[in-house]
Amino acid sequence: MAKYNKEFKLKIVQEYLLNTLSFDRLAQKYGMPSSTPIKHWVKAYKAFGEKGLQRKVVNEEYPVQFKLGVLHFMKQTGASYQETAIQSKLNNPSLIANWNRKLVK
Question: pLDDT, tens digit, for every residue of 9-31?
Fold first, then answer.
């Protein structure tokens, strides 16, 4: 999967929020194979502002109890990884997917 910088993400999110193009049209315009990342960026931007679009440079350690609590919330509510990340004030849904894969058997 391609990695996109914060400026690129912000440009696309702002273009979407101006209602100029749909997710799919924006993906086509910028040569992206899928519109899914754009949908995630817009949700993250709405929840956290520009901070939601930046990638963390340093891996933060989370206590096991926190991870289990996040996974419990997701299971009980049926929330998606993206929704769970926003609820937990995390900007990386794939982090939760990794926890789910490693901790839930």
Answer: 999 999 999 988 899 999 999 99
